[in-house]
């Protein structure tokens, strides 16, 4: 793991989001598998999720999130010098979703890469963007968390299909030595636990054991829950211990929106108020790398997040990778 205090020269200057129009409610799922709205709400807090059209893919959702960012903040992206799409559901193995997005945006001179840290993808992406800009290698980076999880969900598996949805959130990170956003970070991975949450690709074995349900998400929910509620509160403290701030200085906590019961337990164990915690799962479900930017954007749209707020972001999930960031919100 790595914990660092940032001498940042990077600022988050705009945010945007997009979710598909099609909804999949708990009542819809009652017609598909042996479940109920009451059962889903009690265990996850999720009411509905958004589902991409058959012809809609991760790069399309990413494009719409960037358009939303540009329109709301009157930003141009013609001079962006790196596009980073954080996803584990890219349109293709290659070209990357970032390259597809570059073509859709018509930006001629920019780098384009995908970053796969699953549910920690967006926080990893911001961490990398901050590092590249602070090092002087880039000036203006688009970081997008975007997923079409419906395309890798088994809708006969009631343990996973009730959770996942599709969506995208985008942030613009620019060089600004005077008013940086990034305060401190903590990242790591416990790859030896990767068999608790996976989706196969080329290999159908892990740690010598056969994997199930090829191409779809497979999750041992009980083990992931135990890992998250134990490791995330410790990680939150690691982020703060390398900053000049205490937990009581944090205005908003934005964890990965995996499951409301999980978030409640994390808040209880860390002694952080649930009412100062932002999540996007109620109407969007678990959108993996998109949950944190969607939660942030909901906070902005609802007038909760104000300039000057200290926000603790914490992504965790498949890998089992995690990344926490303490940022100063100053869009």
Topology of this structure?
Blueprint: E1 2-5, E2 10-18, E3 23-25, H1 26-30, H2 37-44, E4 48-50, H3 58-73, E5 82-86, H4 97-105, E6 111-115, H5 121-134, E7 140-148, H6 158-161, E8 166-175, E9 182-189, E10 197-199, E11 205-206, E12 209-210, E13 217-219, H7 221-241, E14 252-255, H8 260-270, H9 281-284, H10 291-301, E15 310-317, E16 321-328
Parallel strand pairs: 5-6, 5-7, 14-15
Antiparallel strand pairs: 1-9, 2-8, 3-4, 7-8, 9-16, 10-13, 11-12, 15-16
Distance between the termini: 30 Å
- The total count of strands amounts to 16
Q: Compute the gyration radius: what is it?
A: 18 Å
The spatial strand order of the largest sheet comes to 1-9-16-15-14
- Classify the secondary structure makeup into a structural class: alpha+beta
What is the 3D shape? globular
Helical residue percent band = 25-40%
Percent of sequence in beta strands: 25-35%
Q: Segments where pLDDT lies below 50 for 5+ residues?
A: none
> What is the average of the pLDDT values?
94
The largest pleated sheet is described as:
5 strands, mixed
Which oligomeric state applies? single chain
Provide the succession of SSEs.
EEEHHEHEHEHEHEEEEEEHEHHHEE
Helical segment count: 10
């Amino acid at each position: 793991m790595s914990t660092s205090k940032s001498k940042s020269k990077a600022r988050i200057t705009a945010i945007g989001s997009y979710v598909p129009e099609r909804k999949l409610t708990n009542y819809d799922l009652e017609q598909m598998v042996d479940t109920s709205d009451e059962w889903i709400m009690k265990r996850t807090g999720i009411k509905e999720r958004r589902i991409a059209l058959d012809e809609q893919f991760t790069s399309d959702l990413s494009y719409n999130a960037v358009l939303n960012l540009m329109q709301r903040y009157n930003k141009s992206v013609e001079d962006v010098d790196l596009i980073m799409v954080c996803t584990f559901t890219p349109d293709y193995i290659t070209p990357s979703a970032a390259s597809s997005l570059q073509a859709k945006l018509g930006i001629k001179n920019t780098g384009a890469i995908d970053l796969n840290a699953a549910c920690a993808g967006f926080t990893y992406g911001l961490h990398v963007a901050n590092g590249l800009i602070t090092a002087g290698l880039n000036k203006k980076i688009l970081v997008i968390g975007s997923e079409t999880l419906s395309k890798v969900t088994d809708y006969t598996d009631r343990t996973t299909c009730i959770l996942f949805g599709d969506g995208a959130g985008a942030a613009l990170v620019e060089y600004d030595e005077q008013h940086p956003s990034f305060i401190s970070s903590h990242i790591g991975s416990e790859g030896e636990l990767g068999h608790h949450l996976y989706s196969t690709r080329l290999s159908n074995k892990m740690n010598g054991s056969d994997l199930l349900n090829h191409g779809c998400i497979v999750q041992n929910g009980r083990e992931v829950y135990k890992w998250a509620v134990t490791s995330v509160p410790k990680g939150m403290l690691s982020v703060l211990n390398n900053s000049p701030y205490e937990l009581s200085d944090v205005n908003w906590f934005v964890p990965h929106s995996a499951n409301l019961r999980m978030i409640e337990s994390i808040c209880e164990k860390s002694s952080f108020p649930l009412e100062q915690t932002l999540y996007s799962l109620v109407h969007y479900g678990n959108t993996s790398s998109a949950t944190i930017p969607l939660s942030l954007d909901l906070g902005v749209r609802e007038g909760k997040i104000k300039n000057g707020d200290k926000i603790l972001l914490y992504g965790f999930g498949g890998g089992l990778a995690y990344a926490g960031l303490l940022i100063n919100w100053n869009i």
